[in-house]
Write the structure tokens for this entry.
Amino acid sequence: MRRAPSDWAAARDAAIDDFLSRFASDCADRDVLADLMVAITRLARDGAHRGDLKLLTNAFKELRYAFKVFAPYHGVRKVSVFGSARTPADHPEFLQAVDFARRMRERRWMIITGAGDGIMGAAQRGAGRSGSFGVAIRLPHEQRTNPVIADDPKLVNFKYFFTRKILFLKEASAVALFPGGFGTQDEGFEALTMIQTGKTNLMPLVMIDAPGGTYWQHWRTYIKAELVLNGMIDDDDLGLFKLTDDLDEAVEEITGFYRRYHSMRYVGPLLMLRLNSPLSPEALERLNDTYASALLSGGRIEQHLTPLEGEGEEAERPELPRLTLAFNHRSIATLRRLVDDVNNWAFPGGIHNQ
């Protein structure tokens, strides 16, 4: 006799609870593990195709291992660097990538690349082995691991592009794009899409040419002529990225973004911005006056010097002050300008120096 669905679910939940009590008793997130195991039992009941089960299993194993590799470096900011695997070592774009990565490493950032040759190898040469992560993809041709990151414990090899893509944005605090082919364009557009739609945290994205280069200038001309003028994106969306051939500007665009701003997350309906230092009452009021249109009706930007109640007992970085706002979700570009003003106000040389 077949069990009723409610009896089957109750027996399943009891078995999962017993399993986790025995094999994950020290884990603080057993509820999340239980959800994962419930999904596995549902796959079995669905009669999922063996090929689908193998895809899910391989993707899960790849991500699990990658998370393990990155975990010891959680507190270190990283920049994902993209560009052509075919750029020769004597090319100005190669040399620019080496210098960019070296400068970022001097500021205690680490570099993530696809672990190949060309721009990827240049960036890892500049950052050095200790300052590099490699997120490689297994391909039948063209891609090989560059000697800087080869056999390093911080090299992760992926079977699937989609699992690899997750790491490039999940682990990064910034994105740097050098001239490249389809892959570079793909990663750049995906990063912009994820930022523009709020599906990844706001972060600086800089497109870097060699001195006097025009690759990204021509790209921006196309974006303006076809996407902006035809209403496919807003003109404000051009503020989500920066084009430059000046490495001082590129490095400042990235590091300056975290001058005061630290990170963000949602707590219930409120967007919370963690700050490295509090804003003055005058600066806070100025933010409310300037960005009222980005808030839901009647909402205000408020500052908190302790974690919010909704963050729970495991609040990340509890020592940092917070800003909360009832963000209307309509314009990430406006939110980017707000963060820029948070970083600039009350700092020497800032455009809104108090």
Q: What stands out?
A: The first helix runs from residue 5 to 23. The chain has three domains: 10-70, 73-257, 259-344. The first strand starts at residue 78 and ends at 82. Residues 259-344 form a domain with the Gyrase A; domain 2 fold (CATH 3.30.1360).
